[in-house]
Every structure is written in C-alpha cells, then in structure tokens.
Amino acid sequence: PPEARYDAAASRPPVDPNGTQVQPSLAPDDRTPEERIPEIYEHERIIVGVDQSLNLLGFRDTTTGELSGFEVALAKEISRDIFGDPDLVDFRYVDSTERISSLQEGRVDLVVRTMSVTPAREQAVDFSAPYLTARAGILVPSGSDIEDETDLAGRRVCVAADSTPEEIVRATAPDATLLLVRSWSDCLVALQQFQADAVVSDDTILAGINDQDPATVIVRRGLSTEFYAVAVAEDHEGLVRQVNSTLERLRADGTWQQLYNQWLETFLPGGTQPYARYAEETPEPEDDSGETTEEGR
C-alpha cells in the first residue's frame, strides 16, 4: 500500500496501552450549546475528523455515496444536540497519524476515529467519556496456521502506524516484522496481496475487515482492552461537556444501543455503552444574591 513500510517489532521498546485507566472527563453542565460552544454554534457547522474506509465504523457507502457507520452516526448525534439537525457536520478524513495534529492545528473540532485513550494522548488532547470498548485481536486468512500471538514470530503483521495495536505487537511479538500503513483498509489489501500474514487490530476494526472479506477469520481476541473516546483540542472544556451531554442522552434514550445493534451487534454481540467517569469539581462560590463572586471566577 502507498507509504507503507516494514519495521522490526523489536526496533524500539513498546508503549503498551493495555489496562490503561481512563481518566475522568468533564461532566455535562446545565448550559445550552450556544453558551458552551458559541463559536461553533454561530458557525452553524461542526467539523469532525473521521475515517472513510473503516467498514462498520466510518466508511463511504458505495450505494449512496454517503459516509456511514457507527462513528459517523455518533458525530451526527452530536450535531443534533448542538443545532437540532444531525446533518450540520463537515466530515474531514484523517488517517491514524493525523488525529492529534488535526486538532492541534485547528483543522477539525472533534476527532471520532477509533481513538483509544492513552496517557500519551491525554498529554496532547482532551477526551470525552468513552463511547466504545475495543479488544485487540488477530485476523488471518482462512487456513492460516497462526492461532495466537506466539505464532507471530517471523511473520509480517500489518498495523496502522501510531496506533495502539502497533504497540501491542511490539510488546507481545517482538520477533515479528511490522507492516506499518496509514489506514486499516490498507491492511486488508496487504493481506489479500500476500504482503502480510496477519492483521492485529481492535475487534471493532477486525469485524469490519472480516465482513468485507469472509475468507478471513479472527483467531485471537482479548490481547488488550481499550476505550474509544471523542478527542478535542486542549482547553476546550465547553466542547468536551457538550459531547458528554450527547453521550448521556444516547445512554438515557437508548440511541447508543440502537446504533450498536445496527452496526456491530452481528459481529460483536453483547456490547454495552462504557461507564462514564467524571472529574470532581468544586462549585463556584456565590454571594448572598446568588451571583458567582469574582473570587469564584
């Protein structure tokens, strides 16, 4: 695939995200979207970074030409709660290496693209509460003798560059050779063209690849447990609260489960919305008139 490269898994130490504790996010408050995010509200559009080739999550439907999938639907629900219209979203394609930079450079307002929460990423961007649980696994062509991570030694393993599965392979299969690509869809191409022997990725992504090519099989699950969250540029607390407000609404009215059942239940049965943890915040002091004091500000 374009810009793909091979790299020995042992070429550097891994940064293993497995078991990472998701840090508390900012709780929704009682402000309106216009008060929380006035610039986005006035613009009447929210710009969201997504993938366009991740089957089931964020992909372009060949029949309609429209972007579809669980993460695309989630972005539309965020738009619905801001503007009263789910279609006021400008979708921008970002690959796995651009997720943080697209936020830092102001090219997008949000990234909703299989972005696991890790300590390193929390130093660069802010996150909503998690919206999906992902468990890494191994996908291979049917008939392969690869059964688990111990069989990856000496094999070519496709992963997206700068992804948590890259770190998992470096940690669990240091004798493998990594094929680093820009998009997970490139891994399916590499597998079909015999440029890779296996794909290691989250089960949410592997389910989409397996759906596209039934001549593949997922042979190992549970290499790690991670949580996807919506990423926001640092110091945009109002936008974080707005996203979390939508996630709470999706939990309360059953929309999250409806979306999961529509896109993922067939391949990953039994999914539920992850639990949200919110940071403890000290209420601002008020004077006798009920107004927030300067000290509280």
Can you summarize this structure?
The chain is of the alpha/beta class.
Notes on the structure:
- With 297 residues, this protein is an alpha/beta fold.
- The protein folds into 2 domains: 5-15 and 134-220, D-Maltodextrin-Binding Protein, domain 2, CATH 3.40.190; 33-133 and 227-263, D-Maltodextrin-Binding Protein, domain 2 (3-Layer(aba) Sandwich), CATH 3.40.190.
- The chain is 30% helix and 23% strand.
- It contains 10 helices and 13 strands.
- The chain has helices at residues 33-36, 38-43, 70-83, 99-104, 119-122, 164-172, 184-192, 203-212, 237-253, 255-263; strands spanning 5-8, 46-50, 53-54, 58-60, 67-68, 89-93, 110-111, 126-141, 156-160, 177-181, 198-202, 216-220, 225-232.
- The strands form 2 sheets. Strands 1, 2, 6, 7, 8, 9, 10, 11, 12 and 13 form a 10-stranded mixed sheet that branches.
- A hairpin with a 6-residue loop joins strand 4 (58-60) and strand 5 (67-68).
- Helix 3 (70-83) crosses helix 9.
- The longest helix is centred in the last third of the chain and has 17 residues, at 237-253.
- The chain is globular and about 60 Å long.
- The relative contact order is 0.21.
> What is the arithmetic mean of pLDDT?
91
Helical stretch tally: 10
Tell me the name of the CATH homologous superfamily of the largest domain.
Answer: Periplasmic binding protein-like II
Query: What's the CATH topology name of the largest domain?
Result: D-Maltodextrin-Binding Protein, domain 2
Separation, N- and C-terminal Cα atoms: 53 Å
CATH class of the largest domain: Alpha Beta
Q: How many separate domains make up the residues?
A: 2
Shape descriptor: globular
Helix content: 25-40%
Helix and strand run:
EHHEEEEHEHEHEEHEHEHEEHH
Structural class by SSE content: alpha/beta
- Per CATH, which architecture of the largest domain? 3-Layer(aba) Sandwich
Largest sheet: 10 strands, mixed
